[in-house]
Amino acid sequence: MGGGGIRVPGDKSITHRALMLAALSSGRCRLGGALAAGDTRATASVLRALGVTVGPLGADRAIRITGGGLRPFRAPHVTLDCRNSGTTARLLLGLLAGHAFEASLTGDRSLRRRPMARIAEPLRRMGAEITASDGDRLPARIRGGALKPLVWDSPVASAQVKTALFFAGLTGGVRVTVTEPFHSRDHAERLLRLLGVHVDVDGTATRVDPPESIAPFDGDIPGDYSSAAYLLAAGLLRRSGEVVVEGVGINPTRTGFARVIERMGARIEVQGRWMSLGEPGATLVARPARLRSTEVRADEVPALVDEVPLLACLAARAEGTSVFHGVGELRVKESDRLALVAKNLAAAGVDAVAEADTLRVTGTDRPLRGLVETAGDHRLAMAFAVLGTAPGGELELDDAGCVAISYPGFFQDLVRALTDA
Ligand code: S3P
Q1: Catalytic choice (306, 351, 413, 420)
Q2: Which residue from 304, 233, 303, 310 is spatially nearest to 266, judged by alpha carbons?
Q3: What are the tens digits of pLDDT across the range 178-204?
Q4: Which of these three, 220, 243, 274, is where a domain ends?
Q5: b/e for 74-101, b at 16 or more Cβ within 10 A?
Q6: Domain range for residue 293?
Q7: Alpha-carbon distance 412 to 352, whole Å?
Q8: Is residue 1 in some structural domain?
Q9: What percentage of the chain has pLDDT greater than the value 70?
Q10: Which residue ranges have their beta carbon within 6 Å of ligand 1?
C-alpha cells in the first residue's frame, strides 16, 4: 500500500461491517487494519455481549473473530450499549431481526436522539417486533424470529438502512431488495460479493439473496477516506509543501469530497492504486490551492455526507458563496451538524446560514477566531481543527477528545500534515 506518507486508521464503515460479517461466518476470521476507536469498540463489545468471540481491537495488530454461522447470537444478559455509534445500533437491529429472542439496545445522549424508525419500520414489515422510545428512538427492544422477504423503497439514501436490511436478510434467511433515492456507500455489497453472496444491482435497487453459509475470511481494511479528507484539506490550506496520505480507501461511493474540491479549483492526486477486501485504495496527495465557491447538489451528498462540515469549513476560505443542497440528513447525525456548522462559522466571523436542508457559506480571508461548540461530535471537532490551521486562525474546540470516536491519533497526524515536506 505505498510508502512515505501519513497512514490514517482503518475505515469505520468497513470495520463495523467486517466485524459483523465475521461473526456470521462459520469459523475463525482475521482482520488487519481494523479501526480501533470509540465507535468500532462499541460494535466489538455488543458482539461479545451476544456471545461472539471477538479478540482485542488494537491499533497495531489484527483482530480475530470466531463466527458462529448465520444466527450466531445468544440472548444477552445486559442492555446492548451502542455508545455514540449510529452504525452499530442500526446494523445490530438488522442482525437481531433473525434471532428469536428479545434484546434491548441503548446509546449515549447523542445516539438516543437519532431516528431509528427508518430501520424499525421495514424490520417490522419483515416480522420483527420492535418497540422504540417515542416510536423512533433508543432505548429500544427487539424480538426477532422467522422473517419474510422484503422489497423496500427507502425514502432516505442511507447505507445504514440498506445494510441493516441486508443483514436482517442474512440472519433471517430471506431475500431483501432495497431501493434508495441515490446510491449510498456500497461497502456491505462489496464485502458480501467477496464472500460469495449473490448481490444484484439494478439502478438504485440492490437485491441480496440469502446464502447457505458465509465462509471464514481474512483481509486488510483500507484506511478511512473520511479521516484522510481532514489531512488533505489541511494540505489545501497550507502555504507550501504537500500532504501525502497512504493506504486510503477510494471507493467512488465515498470520494465525493475530491470531486467537489476539483470544482473549487484544487486537486487530490491519486497514486499507486491497489485493491483490498473488494475495495479500491491508493495514496492521495494534496497541495496548496486558491479555492473558489461551488454548489453541491443533493444527489452528490451521499458520497460526501460525512465531509459536509469539512467542505463548509473549506468554503469559508474560498472566494464567493458556496451552497450545499439537500443536506437535511446532517441534522440527525451525531449532532445537528447543519445548525452547528453555521453557528460556529458565524461565531468565527464567516457569513454562514443553515435553512431547512440547505447550507450557504461565504468565504473570507480574514483570520478566524473563536470557541467552537462541538457538542461532542468528532466530525465537527476535526473540521474546525483544520479550519483553525488557516493563516491567522485561532479556533479553540470546547471538546477535542471526541475525535477518538473515529480517529484517536488525529491531532498528531494533523501536526505531521502541517509540518512534513
Ligand atoms: C455510515 C453511513 C452514513 C454515514 C455514517 C456511516 C455507514 O450514515 O454518515 O457515518 O457506515 O453506513 P447514513 O447511512 O445514515 O447516511
Answers
A1: 306
A2: 233
A3: 999 999 999 999 999 999 999 999 999
A4: 220
A5: eebeeebbbbbbbbbbbbbbbbbbbbee
A6: 225-419
A7: 29
A8: no
A9: 99
A10: 13, 16, 87, 158-160, 163, 184-185, 305-306, 329
